[in-house]
Every structure is written in C-alpha cells, then in structure tokens.
Specification:
One of its GO terms (cellular component) is membrane. Keywords: Membrane, Transmembrane, Transmembrane helix. The chain crosses the membrane at residues 38-60, 67-86, 92-113, 134-158, 164-186, 198-218, 249-271. With 277 residues, the protein is mainly alpha-helical. It has one domain (5-267). It has twelve helices and no strands. The chain has helices at 5-26, 38-61, 64-71, 74-85, 92-115, 119-130, 133-161, 165-186, 194-220, 223-228, 232-243, 251-269. It is globular and about 45 Å long.
Length: 277
C-alpha cells in the first residue's frame, strides 16, 4: 500500500524540524531569543504551512501535472509580492526571465501530456472537470500566493537574524504538527516498510537542505532572481529521465528544457544586481 501524502509531508516536516534544531544547537544559535524577528518568522511559518497543506490537497484531487503547473506559479507571485512587500525593483529582464521559464515548463508538460496520456489520467481529468474544478484551482492559486508571500518573509527574517536556518526551524515547528493532525484526521495511517521509511527520511533530509539553500539564496539575492532558479527543477528532472532512458524524448521537451536553462542563466548572469545592503 502506498504511503498517504499527508503522512509523507508529516515525515518530511518532522525531519526538517529535527535537523534545523540540531543545526542551530550545534552552531550555538539559541532557538528562542527576544532579539529574533518573530513577526516575519511566525507569519512565514503560518503561510508556509497553509501553502503546503493546500498543495497536498490539490495533488489529491486533480491530476499531478496540473497541480505542478499551479505550484510553479509561485515564482511569479513571489516576484509580485516582493515588489509590493519588500519594494524590490522588478526589471524587465527579471520579468522576461520568469515568463520564459514558465512557458518552457508549460511546453514540457504539454509534450508529456499529449504523448503519455493514459486512460486512468483521462478519467481523472474528466472527474476533475466535472467536480468543482474552479474551486480546486483557486485553492492551488491560494497555495502559490501564500508561498510567494512566504518567500518574501523568509528574506526579511533571514536578513534580520543573519541565520537562514531559523526560518526553516520556525516553519517546522508549525508545519510538523499541522501535517500530523491532517494525516490522522483525513487519511488512514499506513505503517511504512523499511524501504519506504528510508525513502521518506532521505526526502526529508533533501527537503531540509533545499529549504536552507533557498533561505540563503533569498538572503543574498533579489526574490525575482532567486525564485527563477526553481524552474531548473523541471528541466533537470526531464533531462535526467531522458539520460537514464526512463522516458522517451521529443524535440518539444528538449526545447522547453533549453528555454528554461537559458532563461535562468540569463537571469543569473546578465546584469547581476545583488541585494546585499
């Protein structure tokens, strides 16, 4: 039996909480101190948890590819919110880079969708279109918007405390019990096998490292530039699948991957204006 999504998210958040706590303790950083910027940390934890729970809800009720497309609107919303909340200057190059990366991702998923659509996927899409699809799509957009605001709060808290791991720790404190409650309330608990548990622990460790690197990137760089790099996840996963012969390839997929990689590279290296003040 497969592991339910909320149970997987609970394991991931718990591992993130434990590792961030150990990191702070080993580095001599107090976990709770009056000098910490608690307002952005609390808001970051709240919005990050809401975003995670909403995204898991969408994955459970709509086709996975459509949920991912909704999830990858987060960089666009993050750039908009950075303009509003942090008053960051959003240059034309940043806007063009985000749009090119997003369209590259859409191009990849369109190729996969048209070439590898199974009957089960067709049935799930028909059910999706008939049953409150607008409602679920709005929840997906809510997840992206709250995640975008969360990125801005990560940047504000990381710069104020000079310790990006603190934002990861604050997220774990709230997200771990929240996903645990949802797991026991809405899903049937499944005892994982050794193999499944090891994969979940590896996923939690990698997720923790990704959270730390993201917080550090947001601390050093403009939000619009930092979040555009996230689109490389789509391109690299496709290239890895093609190189390991796990999936077929087409010119459209390669074109989408190339568009994302060129966009991200140009965003990073053309006109760099690092936000280090």
């Amino acid at each position: 039996m497969s592991i339910p999504l909320f149970e997987t998210a609970f394991t991931r958040c718990t591992v993130t909480l434990i590792l961030s706590c150990l990191w702070l303790r080993i580095s001599g950083q107090p976990l709770f101190e009056a000098t910490h910027p608690w307002s952005p940390l609390v808001l970051r934890a709240l919005l990050g948890s809401l975003s995670l729970l909403s995204f898991v809800y969408c994955i459970q009720r709509i086709p996975f590819s459509q949920a991912l497309v909704l999830g990858f609107t987060t960089p666009i919303f993050a750039s908009i919110m950075a303009k509003i909340i942090l008053h960051e200057k959003l240059k034309i190059a940043d806007i063009v880079g985000l749009i090119c990366s997003f369209f590259g991702m859409l191009f990849i998923f369109k190729m996969l969708y048209t070439r590898r659509l199974l009957k089960a996927e067709e049935a799930s899409i028909i059910s999706f279109m008939r049953n409150h699809h607008i409602y679920i799509a709005l929840i997906g957009l809510f997840s992206s918007i709250t995640s975008g605001i969360s990125y801005c709060l990560i940047k504000a808290a990381a710069k104020a405390s000079d310790q990006p791991v603190l934002t990861v720790f604050s997220f774990g404190i709230l997200a771990s019990p929240a996903t645990g409650i949802c797991s026991f309330a809405f899903e049937e608990f499944v005892l994982p096998s050794r193999y499944s548990l090891s994969l979940m622990l590896i996923l939690g460790t990698l997720s923790f490292l990704a959270e730390v690197f993201l917080a550090r990137g947001l601390q050093l760089e403009k939000v619009g530039k930092a979040v555009n790099v996230q689109f490389t996840e789509v391109a690299l996963s496709q290239l890895w699948g093609i190189c390991t012969s796990r999936m077929g390839w087409s010119f459209g997929q390669l074109a989408g991957c190339l568009l994302i990689l060129i966009s991200v590279t140009c965003t990073m290296y053309i006109g760099p204006d690092k936000d280090n003040e």
